[in-house]
Task: structure prediction
Amino acid sequence: MTASTGRGLLHLAAAVDQPDTYEADPYLTLTRLAERGALDFVTLGDSFGRPGPDALAVLSRVAPATARIGLVPTVTTTHTEPFHVQAAVATLDWVSRGRAGWRPEVSATEEEARLFGRRAAAPAAELWGEAGEVADVATRLWDSWEDDAEIRDVATGRFIDREKLHYVDFQGATFSVRGPSIVPRPPQGHPVTVVDTTQQHAYDVAARHADVALVNAAGPAQAAAVRAGLRRRAAEYGRDPDALRVLAALRIDLGGGEHAAVPGHGGGGPLPSDLGPLYRGGPVDLADLVTAWHRAGAVDGFHLTPVVPRRDLERLVNGTVPLLQHRGLFRTFYPGSTFREHLGLARPANQYAALAGDLS
Amino acid sequence: MTSTAKQPKPRGRRQLNKHIHLAAHFPGVNNTTVWTDPRSRSQIDFASFEHLARTAERGLFDFFFLAEGLRLREHKGRVHDLDVVGRPESLTVLNALAAVTERLGLAATVNATFNEPYETARRFATLDHLSGGRAAWNVVTSSDAFTGENFRRGGYLDRADRYTRAAEFVATARELWDSWTPEGQPRPFAHTGQHFDIEGEFTLPRSPQGHPVVIQAGDSPEGREFAASAADVIFTRHGTPEAGRAFYADVKGRLAKYGRTAGDLKIMPGVTVVLGDTAAEAQERAAGIRRQQVSPQNALLTLEQIWGVDLSSYDPDGPLPDIDPVVDSGLSQGRTKRGDPRAVAEQWRALSRAKGLSIRQTVIETTTRQSFIGTPQAVAAELDEFVQSDAADGFILVPHLTPSGLDEFVDQVVPLLQERGAYRTEYTGTTLRSHLGLKEPVPPAREEGLTA
Result:
């Protein structure tokens, strides 16, 4: 669906992080708001190193109370067993009926290591290497059940066809997993992997394993170059670059009026900030920025982090999104039901089923 | 009303009777789950979990219970294929169920061997926050190298270390749950023990229940002691009323030395119920379910688990093998053992000879007898009697059908329990602790950071 120039469907996502928030309702409110704007997905960050609830749990709580929007929690891979990681993400896909993603992240600090007391802190580069292996074993475990493994054959008394269950026998640098998973293959085949390349050292994991990569860019030209580079690297790993969606990460502060506080800001680039590129202005000029970048083929879409969560998401959904819809750039409803369908990504073939086919 | 007449203890008015506590066990990977029945639905789809949870809440149950699996069971070196296989991850399912229920407690089984206290405490505290105080944790341990092949940790935990690890795990989790100040400020913790040496800050404030409810499953002496010292609920095996009273007295008798009272630990055996319009019809249905539960293939497999050798040449409708079992053959992996195989084999052969039973009939007779069979009136009376005579505080119901297996019970038995004054007619509190009548844990009043 997406041409190599990037001028395919526009994809929009929003962060629903809120400080000091532990109960379900505020997360539900923001996710429903994003769903009202037909956004592709929401993200929720997570870290053992700062206050906050378990993000995957929060989005599981949100899942039955929403219908279409993709749900992407951050899941850290450093201190959690890979087998548990993949089972939880697969289960989020089941309880959301095909709307799960995950954003792998590492825990590189000594403080986080001391919470577990099992391994010493390691450099982020090393831990991202391990995160790549976790992403790899996760897809293997999701594939360890073929889609039609459950047969319920009363005549022979067999609930499953065990020829369609597979050991993964994964041997990584720091862990091994025998398999198969305890969870049957999730509705999407593989839940969507979102990799935030604004994290140093995550670039290669994105090129190899991401369905969606988040990138930092100060302007459309730089974004286009980053996108082209990621696609090239993905191709070097033997992937189809058109199966990778590249979204610009942008913090948005829509507290001003209709237009940008900085003249020309909407049509130009965002401002640099400590936490990444920041757009400050009104919803109309944000729509102009999105339009300009998208028309230039710079990115496949945007991942927007509201500076003031409720206010800025409301202005995004009520102001920016209708303009983009009016311009024919953004969907007005969800034509599909799964997150992969929103992204225009195919349901992946099962690597073990394919292997069996080759041998026959 | 005659069922309590033989109560030895003097009792006041009827409404002062003990209230029965009820829980619903989702029937998944379990050899009592009947998947061949046309009414059987997915053990994976969220709709199935939602149906059973809503049924339990309609029946004003205390909680909904999910078991755990960390490796698919194997038999003769291959994945076991005769029972339901596969399940979603429990805590994720329970967080989703919190969205479609309002009062029902939500209990997940999480292994203390293949998890770490910090993350487990955090996941249960999160569930407790997101559900408004309805989380429960069934603590289990495993020493099993077979399961360990899916994990970094492996399976090296000695059997003797299982309960010391579990006890320290729970104690550590409680230190974390207690770590924030009552005013909602993070406060550092530090724990140093035999199994864990950790420090830092927890990421969540004290949760609505203070501590999620802790369940312990298991009847061994170590399990009883652990439950008496640390659990809020014990999930036990069901037996005769006499055995139940002995167990009840034993476990409750262990509480005082931990400064606890009888009400602080609820004893809930896992039970199965079959209803009928008449006693005869209920018996007939129960026999039919037992035949469904033990297919000819499953009968041979059950025997192979005990004998430890391949018995595929035997006729399930024929007599039991004359050969003796091979102990510790490793033929079956990932299952709870049934005790000394030679003794079990001898018992089963004796039963088969005495009653003229085939292999399949013997397995049906020994493994699947339901706990309560009868009319709704008779079952309600028996359940009430069991609780009023201190053989239990309540029951964890294990239905044989997914997800409709408790529909009849909730529609037909719950109203009768209510009429008897033995069961709540509404939820009076919002938290699982309030349903179970458990005290709120008191937050520690320490000024400084916690130290072990």
About this structure: Chain A touches chain B through 62 residues (CB under 8 Å). The radius of gyration of chain A is 20 Å. Confidence is low (pLDDT under 50) at residues 1-6 of chain A.
